[in-house]
Amino acid sequence: MNFGDVKPETKPNIVILISGSGSNMAAIADALKAEKVEANIAAVISNKDEVEGLQKAAERGIHTEVLSHKNFASREAYDIALIELINRFQADLIVLAGFMRVLSPTFVQYFSNRILNIHPSLLPKYTGLDTHQRVLDAGDAEHGVTVHFINEQLDDGPNVIQAVLAVDQDDTVISLQEKVRQQEHIIYPIAVKWFVEGRLKYNGKCALLDGQELPKNGLRL
Ligand code: GRF
After folding, report:
1. Cα(44) to centroid of ligand 1, in Å?
2. pTM greater than 0.85 (yes/no)
3. By the 8 A CB rule, do 97 and 22 touch?
C-alpha cells in the first residue's frame, strides 16, 4: 500500500460571512468547484436577511444562515452568538466577503490566524469606508484591492495578495467599483485555495506562502 496516496478523510470547511450581493462568495464557490479544490463551503452566513448573496448561495446548493445583529444588545453578544453558529460547521477558515461589521477582539482571537478579508484598496492605504472616492479625491494614479488576514485592528492584518489597477482620468466611483470588483473575483479565490491547500498560513506576525514570508504588500498581480 502506498501511504502517500491516502487522502485525508475530511475536507477543510469554509464558512463565508456576507452582508450583501455576495459576488465574492459566488466567485470563490465557482472557482473552488471549477478547479475541483478539496474544500467544502459548509455555510454562508449573513447578518442581513433577504440579501442577494443568500439567493446566490442557495442556487449553488450551499447551506445558508441569517444571524441578524438587530437582535443583540452589544457587538460582543452578537459575536459570541456568531462564534457559536460558526462552530456548528467546524470551520477551518472564515472568509469575510463583504461582511459589513467590525469584529470584536473576542471573535478575532477565537478564530485566530484563520480569518481572511478582502478590502477595496491597496492596504495599508485607505482603511475603512469610501475607498474609491478617497482615491479620486487624492488624485492617485493607481488603486486596487487587497486580500489580507484579520487581526484585532481594522483592515490591518498582513496582506496576502493585491491586484493593482490604473486610475484613468474619466474614472468615477462606479467605474472604480466595477474595476475593483473584477479583480476581487480573481484574487480572492486564489487566496482561499492556497489556504485550504495548506500553502498559506498566518503565524500571528506575518503571512507565509509555502513557508516563505510574503512581502509587506502581499503578492502583487
Ligand atoms: C467588495 O467590494 C469588498 O471589497 C468589500 O465589500 C464588497 C463585497 O461585495 N469588502 P460582494 O458582496 O462580494 O459582491
Report:
1. 14
2. yes
3. yes
Where do the DSSP E strands lie in the chain? 13-18, 40-46, 64-66, 93-96, 115-119, 142-149, 159-166, 200-202, 207-209, 212-213, 219-220
Distance CA 181, CA 115 (A): 20
| Residue nearest atom 1 in ligand 1 by C-alpha distance | 98
At CB < 8 A and 24+ separation, what contacts does 65-73 make? Answer: 69/101
Beta bridge partners of 43: 15
Query: Any bridge partners for residue 36, and if so which?
Result: none
Phi, psi of 159 (to 5 degrees): -75, 150
- pLDDT tens-place string over residues 134-184: 999 999 999 999 999 999 887 789 999 999 999 999 999 999 999 999 999
For residue 98, the CA-to-ligand 1 centroid distance in Å is: 4
Residue that is written with C-alpha cell 487624492 in the block: 138
> Residue 39 phi/psi, 5° resolution?
-155, 155
